[in-house]
């Protein structure tokens, strides 16, 4: 599979970020479930544990090897099924990642816009951009009945790293 970088530079809540759009021929509730329900998340990205009503959960990426540690995700805002704002702190790192998911439905087609900050170091875009293109493409494949394992990270990174570095260069 040949991939194309889809992210664009944006400012979200005053932070330099990369935003991505994916469109689904599905209702907003269904797409919301795909990005929030544990069993559906596990098909394409990872798993969370804990009680979201407390304002935080632990999230672990499932497709980045066994050494990947669970991260604490703070739920800053949740307006189901339209908006979810999260902050994550990775153990051993000083900064936080800020992520925003916005869903809009029009005539049975839902657009998911996902953005993530790149932190204080613009060079982070070289990993963040290709990584989210990869995972969001896995989401699309999972939600259209395909096998997310068919999406190869090597088609995204390091192939598209320079595209994202140039956005912040």
TrEMBL record:
Signal peptide: none annotated. This is Activator of Hsp90 ATPase homologue 1/2-like C-terminal domain-containing protein. Belongs to the AHA1 family. Coiled coil: none annotated. It comes from the Bacteria. CDD domains: SRPBCC_CalC_Aha1-like_6. Gene3D superfamilies: 3.30.530.20. Transmembrane segments: none annotated. Residues 26-140 form the Activator of Hsp90 ATPase homologue 1/2-like C-terminal domain.
């Amino acid at each position: 599979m040949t991939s194309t970088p889809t992210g664009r530079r944006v400012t979200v809540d005053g932070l330099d970020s990369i935003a991505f759009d994916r469109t689904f021929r599905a209702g907003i509730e269904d797409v919301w479930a795909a990005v929030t329900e544990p069993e559906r998340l596990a098909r394409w990205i990872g798993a969370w544990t804990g009680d979201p009503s407390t304002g935080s959960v632990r999230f672990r990426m499932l497709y980045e090897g066994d050494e990947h540690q669970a991260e604490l995700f703070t739920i800053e805002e949740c307006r189901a099924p339209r908006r979810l704002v999260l902050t994550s702190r990775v153990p051993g790192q000083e900064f936080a990642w800020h992520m925003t998911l916005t869903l809009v439905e029009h005539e049975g087609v839902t657009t998911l816009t996902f953005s993530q900050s790149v932190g204080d170091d613009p060079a982070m875009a070289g990993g963040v951009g290709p990584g989210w293109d990869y995972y969001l493409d896995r989401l699309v494949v999972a939600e259209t009945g395909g096998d997310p394992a068919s999406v190869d990270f090597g088609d995204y990174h390091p192939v598209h790293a320079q595209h994202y570095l140039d956005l912040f260069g």
